[in-house]
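Design job #97: recover the sequence.
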């Protein structure tokens, strides 16, 4: 399925929120109205989960966002679906990730 909006060059950038976390990043540029992960998102998550799996005490904080376009209800749902898509992918890489959120 073709994207509704053109992709940006870097789809994983530094987080907006300050964090002392060892591994951190912000996955941006989901397609308009979509929770589907982009190839850059999945590559970054694979790399981070490979590192996280070496630490039995890792914890995950996920925050989902959507643009201000559309209704607040649809944006809330989209934000949740995006965070959930990330979690599902992380769990597919390392099952215990589900208990680390």
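Job complete. Output follows.
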């Amino acid at each position: 399925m073709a994207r509704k909006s053109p992709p940006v060059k870097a789809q994983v950038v530094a987080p907006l929120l300050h964090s002392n976390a060892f591994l951190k990043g912000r996955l941006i540029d989901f397609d308009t109205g979509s929770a589907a992960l982009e190839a850059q998102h999945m590559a970054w998550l694979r790399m981070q989960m490979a590192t996280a799996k070496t630490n039995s005490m890792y914890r995950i904080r996920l925050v989902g966002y959507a643009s201000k376009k559309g209704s607040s209800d649809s944006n809330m749902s989209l934000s949740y679906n995006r965070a959930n898509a990330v979690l599902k992918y992380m769990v597919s890489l390392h099952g215990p990730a589900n208990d680390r959120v």
